[in-house]
Amino acid sequence: MNVLKTDYRLDVRALILPFALTLLGLVVAVQIVIMVNGNQIGLVENLLLAAVAGYYAYVLITRGTRLRQIRFGMLVTHATAYTIVNLSYLLHAFVLIVANSPAIRGDSNFLMNEGWFGVTFGMATGWGIGLLIHAFASVASRGWEEHP
Description:
Shape: elongated
Strand content: under 5%
Order of helices and strands: HHHEEH
Number of helices: 4
Number of domains: 1
Structural class: mainly alpha
Number of strands: 2
C-alpha cells in the first residue's frame, strides 16, 4: 500500500485555517467597536485596523517560508485576508446604507462619509490591485513562490 505522508508543517489547513479564523475574530471585534462608537470610523477604529494589518504581517513573517513552499499558499493567504477584512467593512457599510444611517452619509461636498469611503472603496481598490498583480505573478510562476 502506497501511503503519501504529508509534512504537517506544510499542511495548508494547519497554516491558513487558523489564520483565517483568527483574522475573522479580529475583524468582527473591530466591527463591534465601530458599532459601539456610533458607526463612525475614527482614530481608534483605524488603530484597530492597523492592529489587524499587524497580525497579517506577523503571519507572513512567521509562516511565510512555509506558505511559499505550498503551491499558491501565499496567494490563498493574501486572498483570504483581502476577503475577510474588506467584506467585514463592506457588509457593515451595506447595513448602514440599507438602514439609511446618518453615520455613513457624507456632507454637501461628498456623498459618503470620508472614513467609510476610505475603508470600503479606498482599501478594497488599493489592496485589490495588489492582489490582482499577485494573482498574475502566482499563475505565471505556476503557483510556486519558492520550490520545496
